[in-house]
Design a protein that fits this description.
Layout: H1 10-24, E1 45-46, E2 49-50, H2 62-72, H3 91-96, E3 102-107, E4 110-115, E5 118-122, E6 156-158, H4 169-176, E7 184-188, H5 192-197, E8 203-206, E9 211-214, E10 217-222, E11 242-247, E12 259-263, H6 272-279, E13 285-289, H7 296-299, H8 306-315, E14 321-324, H9 338-349, E15 357-358, E16 365-367
Parallel strand pairs: 5-6, 6-7, 7-8, 12-13, 13-14, 14-15
Antiparallel strand pairs: 1-2, 3-4, 3-16, 4-5, 9-10, 10-11, 11-12
Helix pairs in contact: 1-2, 8-9
Length: about 375
């Protein structure tokens, strides 16, 4: 797709792209001055903002990364002009389904989960750009397979963190106006004020390991290794994490064993996943990021690569995993079609059956009978 600007010179297009990336990544070098959530009894709540449970490498230079991208012509396009297939979801089946757990990958970290009789959206991102601007910033490379207006009524939205590719203002505002009433928005600590300022008040904010319920669906907010920022000056003022959703067993034979889905959000690798696995000894389905990992010297502290995604799959004892956070927006330096290939190699190296950890086409639905 051509950029949304009249400029056609490749160098200037790259310059515009780099400028947007710098704005989006500016929080890497900014810091908070204080935190109203400071709690000396909570290790993740410091006087200057939130922090990860486990130390990560020192922040790398955004300017160095952007210079490398500019001078090396990165990211490279998909091999052989590869076109990502987009499926139209079977909306009639989805709207009629109230019993069978299912997942439909809409793109990036956005998935429609049907679990415990509820329709759940993860990190709804339906806009054309992952950016504070409409004319600059990472642009959608694959068309949306479905619009918000075509979805069944959404009961619950879970947000992993405050970055533009995961928390999209236009999307949450549209969901709040959906027919039949707004969904419940579950958000990391610190984000409720942002939602309230938009007139969205059906919001609960949560700290790590906090648990809440929506009818028969239990939801726990769990740690991740990442950061948050929406401007130059609010780095780590709001928390980040993943979500574990547990519903009543889908069949009488599984009575007493909840069907468990883990949505990892966006994360680097750490011992957090072993901690999650210790608290939730069996996960039926995990949604784990596999993209935006290159170059490793810059991305390692915030985004896992496919081999680390496989390790997360093992750490949380997932029966099945689906790779997300790839193939929709160019956010890093690997070609958009590379993550599934790297995932397949990582599964082979781990001596795991390839069907345990798969990728879906945009718009594809996976029915999750045990």
């Amino acid at each position: 797709m051509p950029p949304a600007t009249s400029c056609r010179h490749p160098f200037l297009r790259r310059l515009f792209s780099c400028t947007a990336a710098l704005l989006l990544a500016a929080g890497l070098t900014a810091c908070s001055s204080s935190s109203k959530y400071y709690d000396p009894a909570k290790s993740n709540r410091t006087e200057t903002g939130f922090r990860n449970n486990y130390p990560q490498p020192e922040r790398a230079s955004v300017l160095k990364w952007q210079w490398e991208r500019l001078t090396q012509g990165l990211p490279k396009p998909p091999a052989n002009d590869y076109r990502f297939p987009v499926l139209k979801p079977d909306l009639a089946w989805i709207k009629a389904n109230h019993d069978m757990p299912s997942v439909t990958w809409i793109g990036h970290a956005t998935a429609l989960l049907q679990l415990g009789g509820k329709n759940v959206l993860t990190d709804p991102m339906f806009s054309e750009r992952a950016s504070p601007f409409t004319f600059i910033g990472p642009r959608r490379k694959v068309p949306l397979p479905v619009q918000i207006a075509d979805l069944p009524h959404i009961d619950l939205v879970v947000i992993s963190h405050n970055h533009y590719d995961h928390l999209d203002r236009a999307s949450v505002e549209q969901l709040n106006r959906q027919a039949g009433g707004p969904p419940l928005f579950l958000v990391p600590l610190g984000l409720r004020d942002w939602f309230m300022a938009l007139g969205i008040d059906n919001v609960r904010e949560m700290d790590w390991w906090d648990k809440t319920s929506l009818d028969k669906l239990d939801i726990t907010f769990v740690p991740a290794t990442h950061w948050s920022a929406r401007s130059l000056f609010d780095r780590s003022e709001t928390l980040w994490g993943g979500w574990v959703l547990q519903a009543a067993a889908p069949s009488q034979t599984d009575r007493g064993a909840p069907f468990t889905v883990y949505f990892a959000g966006d994360t680097g690798y750490s011992k957090d996943f072993q901690d999650i696995g210790a608290r939730f000894p069996h996960v039926d389905l995990a949604l784990i990021p596999i993209g935006a990992y290159a170059p490793r010297w810059f991305m390692q502290g915030q985004h896992v690569d496919p081999a680390q995604a496989v390790q997360i799959h093992r750490d949380v004892h997932a029966a099945r995993s689906i790779g997300i956070h790839w193939g929709t927006f160019e956010l890093a330096d690997e070609p958009l079609d590379e993550p599934p290939q790297a995932l397949a190699r990582a599964m082979q190296q781990a001596n795991l059956p390839p069907e345990q950890f798969v990728t879906l086409k945009h718009g594809e639905t996976l029915k999750l009978a045990r």
